[in-house]
Amino acid sequence: MPSVDDLFKGRHFDREIIVLCVRWYLRYKLSFRDLVEMMAERGLSLAHTTIMRWVQRYVPEFEKRWNRFARQVGGSWRVDETYVKIKGRWVYLYRAVDKAGKTVDFLLRAKRDVAAAKAFFRRAFARHGRPPGKITLDGYQASHRAARELLTQHRAGGVRTRIRSSKYLNNLIEQDHRSIKLRLGPMLGFKRFRHAAITIAGVELMHRIRKGQFALSKFRAVGTTAPEIWSAVLAA
């Protein structure tokens, strides 16, 4: 992992400006051009494509650095899919939260099928080290099949996971989708799948930060501001 100085080496603008623009774009309902105007009021001349490139370049690095401080999630997951438009076509965002509403994982896929669901569960199991005690799904059978087939492989190691179907219990994940969709709406659709995946990862990161899913007690001295916490996390 490069040092924070190497990460921003050779950039025309200070790293504080880069982090601020990326953080605000991911967190608030702002377009690239909104940010250009806001920076112009502060005496900074930026092109909207510059901020777009910053988002694509730095979101994966920010995610890696914040994930070092991630708290564990609970053992009861609610899993569901929502829709995102890319170049005029709908694709599928698989997401899961635990019973306390903490984000478990997410994955953008072009299709909604068994292979896509397996890819999501495989990623989520690997990220958290093992399957959860319970997985709650809706009635879509492809997701049930994917979960069962992957869990069969893990059961040889003694893991027992209960799969259940409940529209009522999955209201929690459906409500959580709204926070993501409300931020994606002003972005007016994506042109490339890879760019969409990176941007969504950044939006999900900001959502996790807002939900307190990171152990940042050592950075939260009295009076510590968000920029100071970000600087400390990136430099740690």
TrEMBL record:
Q: Which residues form the DDE domain?
A: 76-213
**GO BP terms:** DNA recombination; transposition
One GO molecular function term of this record is: DNA binding
Report the InterPro entries cross-referenced here. DDE_dom, IS_Transposase, RNaseH-like_sf, RNaseH_sf, Transpos_IS6
* PANTHER family named in the record: BLL1675 PROTEIN
Pfam (any one): DDE_Tnp_IS240
Alphabetically list the UniProt keywords: DNA recombination, DNA-binding, Plasmid, Transposition
- In Swiss-Prot or TrEMBL terms, this protein is called IS6 family transposase
What job does the chain carry out? Answer: Involved in the transposition of the insertion sequence.
Keyword hit for Zinc: no
